[in-house]
Design brief:
- This protein has one domain (32-244).
- With 257 residues, it is an alpha/beta fold.
- It has helices at 2-28, 148-151, 165-168, 215-224, 238-244, and strands at 35-41, 48-56, 62-72, 77-80, 100-113, 124-126, 131-133, 145-147, 177-181, 196-199, 211-213, 232-237.
- A hairpin with a 5-residue loop joins β2 (48-56) and β3.
């Protein structure tokens, strides 16, 4: 009996060790992160979600900053994307043109807008009439913002993503202020491109795969973000969040805040 108990104890300790190691490995890619923008949605096929922001102290504890804000995501919902987080297979996978916003953990890249400057410490790109994001899978510029005046119009042929939408798309204000969500940074063909945080059209109107919010929410967010905090963007359905929160070392979400 003692021998069997000892064997079971050793097995249990080994399993706990493997679980802790898996948790460490899962969150190692964002261990330097001190700011997190978290979006949760009720399910894979829902459009409306909630955005919260968090800061992490030196002890590794997350603290919510500000209050929850409404957002909308892709008009078809969400799907697992390519970013810092480990691959997941319990839901749809992000594809080019599927109308879904990528789920997972992603670096926040360059901020951008129509104005020459913005109130943010993050790198900022003042968009011009010749800036496009290449959404044509297989292109050397796939999933990159490029200036046709520099790379040539032929290099961006076929792109349906002019960044100055106010000039090209009937005065559209979606990209008047926004930021790059670094989904698919390696430009894997057909896995999705040009994923941004930007301004919404209405509180009910889904995007083509981005996350959209009010102008006030965007201004507060960009003013808060700091490059030295290595900020990340996290989007997850609520069930996936509950399953992964501990292993990914994500914040505890308090209802009503």
């Amino acid at each position: 009996m003692r021998s069997r108990f000892a064997t079971l104890l050793i097995a249990c300790l080994a399993m706990c060790g493997h679980a802790l190691a898996a948790a460490d490995n899962a969150s190692a890619a964002w261990s330097d992160v001190r700011q997190m923008v978290l979006v949760t949605v009720p399910g894979w096929n829902t459009v409306q979600g909630t955005l919260r922001t968090y800061e992490r102290n030196d002890g590794g504890e997350w603290r919510q900053v500000g209050t929850a804000e409404p957002v909308v995501i892709g008009h078809s919902g969400a799907a697992w994307g390519l970013g810092l987080s480990p691959a997941q297979h319990d839901g749809p996978q992000k594809r080019e043109g599927d109308g879904r916003s990528p789920a997972g953990v992603f670096r926040i890249g360059t901020t951008f807008g129509y104005a020459e400057h913005a109130d943010t410490a993050m790198p900022y790109l003042a968009l011009t009439a010749t800036d496009y994001c290449m959404d044509v899978s297989g292109s050397p510029l796939y999933n990159r913002i490029a200036d046709a005046a520099r790379v040539g119009a032929a290099a961006l042929k076929g792109s349906s993503e002019p960044m100055r939408r106010d000039l090209h798309v009937h005065g559209d204000q979606a990209y008047r202020l926004g930021f790059v969500i670094e989904h698919n940074p390696e430009g894997v063909p057909d896995r999705g491109s040009c994923i941004f945080g930007h301004l919404w059209k209405t509180p009910q109107t889904g995007t083509t795969g981005c996350t959209a919010m009010t102008p006030d929410s965007m201004r507060r967010l960009l003013a808060w973000l700091k490059p030295q905090a290595h900020p990340v963007f996290v989007l997850l359905p609520q069930d996936a969040y509950a399953r992964l929160r501990d292993s990914w070392r994500l914040p505890v979400v308090q209802a009503g805040r």
